Description:
The protein has 113 residues and is an all-alpha fold.
Amino acid sequence: MLINRVLNTLGYTALSQRNLLQAAVWYREGLSHAMELDSKERIGWNLYGLALVAETEEQYLQAARLFGAVETWVDINADMTPAEHAEYTRVFENVRARLGKRPLLPREAKDMA
Length: 113
C-alpha cells in the first residue's frame, strides 16, 4: 500500500508542477498496482488523479467519466479530508460547468460513462 501512496503522491506532485504527461504516468502506474492488490480505495484515488489530469488538459467529458468511476471506489464524504473534498468539489463543478450541463450529481456523471 505504501508504494501505491507514493505513486499517487508523485502523480499529484507532477500535476501541481503542470507536468501532465508524467502525472498521468504515475497515476496509471498506481492504478495498475492498486488493481493487482485489489485495493478498491487506492483504485479510486488513482482514478481521481487521472480525473484531475483530464480536467487540467480540458478533457472535460473524460474527466466526468473518471469522476463517475471514482465514486464507485471511494466514498468522497468519508474517505476524503475536508481539503481533498473541497478540491474534488471545485474540480467536479468546473467540469460540470465546462460541459454546459445542468447541475449533475456525481452519480449522474458515472451514468455518462
